[in-house]
Amino acid sequence: MAIQTQIRPQDRPKLIVLGILVIFAVWMLMRAFMGGRLPHLLPKHSQSEAATLPNLTRLHASLDLPLLARLDAIRYSGTRRNLFVAGASARQLRLQARAEKQQRQAQARPHTALAGPLLPPAIPLKFYGYVAHSGALRQIFLRMGDQIFVVHAGETVARRYKIMRIQPTMVTIQDMTDRHTQSVPLTLE
């Protein structure tokens, strides 16, 4: 049973390119596996350069120790990182030195110890006035900045300060964020 295929006219250029690529690939494989050298493709060097360069046409498994010693004696003189040397780059070394210097300076500064524990911030509510009622419920006016609040015991002001007690001479306020309580005298400032 034979399979018959027809080549369409629009496929003809593709087949020509494919044929050229197959011929080129076969030629490259033959050159690689047949051991053919390409001396005409090697760069041309002057007589002095030819004497110092190794002979590339006689490649074999032995080491050329004098050549290795000459290559090892060459020092990198570029401005960027040498890829053939393990370790940090010059930029990394500078950054590390700068960090060590800052650390030494921080250690050299005198440490100031606080005399006691940190005090919580003062509650900003100030007495502004009171409401004179004959009833048992006492109400006072508290000022915070340009706001004035009319409060009684148990209320929360500005969603943060709770009025714990109102006494005849002072009001006790609790900061609900850190549970700090402060007594504010009932005198005008």
List keywords for this structure.
189 residues; alpha+beta; four-stranded antiparallel sheet; 7 strands
Walk me through what this model shows.
This protein has 189 residues and is an alpha+beta fold. It has a domain of 60 residues. The protein is 30% helix and 20% strand. A four-stranded antiparallel sheet has the order 4-5-6-7, with no helix packed on it. Strands 1-2-3 form a three-stranded antiparallel sheet, with no helix packed on it. Strand 4 and strand 5 form a beta hairpin. It is elongated, with a radius of gyration of 45 Å. The model has no long low-confidence stretch (mean pLDDT 79).
Concise summary:
This protein is an alpha+beta fold and 189 residues long. The chain has helices at 12-33, 47-52, 65-73, 90-108, and strands spanning 126-131, 139-144, 147-151, 156-157, 161-166, 170-175, 180-185. It has a domain at 126-185.
